Amino acid sequence: MLSRSYFNLLNLDDYSSGGDRARIPRVISVPGIISDFDDHDGGLESDEAITPVHQERRIIVSNQLPLKAYKDSESKKWCFDWDEDALYLQLKDGFSPDVEFVYVGCLRVEIDPLEQEEVAQFLYEKFKCVPTFLPSNLMNKFYHGFCKHYLWPLFHYMLPFTPDHGVRFDKDMWQAYVSANKVFADKVMEVINPDEDYVWVHDYHLMVLPTFLRKRYNRVKLGFFLHSPFPSSEIYRTLPVREEILRALLNCDLIGFHTFDYARHFLSCCSRMLGLDYQSKRGYIGLDYYGRTVSIKILPVGIQLGQIKSIMSLPDTARKVKELKEKYDGKIVLLGVDDMDMFKGIGLKFQALGQLLDENPRYRGSVVLVQIMNSPRSQGNDIQEVQNEINKVVTEVNRRYGNTGYEPIVCINGPVSFQDKVAYYAISECVVVNAVRDGMNLVPYKYTACRQGSPYLDEGLGLEGSAAPRKSVIIVSEFIGCSPSLSGAIRVNPWNISCVAEAMHSAISMPDSEKELRHEKHYKYVTSHDVAYWARSFDQDLERACAQYYQKRCWGIGFGLNSRVVALGPNFRKLSVEHIVSAYKNTSSRLILLDYDGTMMPQDLVNKSPCQDVISVLNGLCNDPMNVVFIVSGRGKDSLENWFSPCERLGLSAEHGYFTRWTKNSTWESCGLAVDLSWKNIVLPIMEHYTEATDGSSIEQKESALVWHHQEADPDFGTWQAKELLDHLESVLANDPVVVKRGQHIVEVKPQGVSKGVVVENLMSTMRNTGKPPDFVLCIGDDRSDEDMFESIASSVASRSMPDTAEVFACTVGQKPSMAKYYLDDTFEVIKMLQGLSAASAHQFLKSPHNQVSFEGSN
Question: What Pfam families has UniProt attached to this entry (predicted)?
Answer without folding.
Answer: Glyco_transf_20, Trehalose_PPase
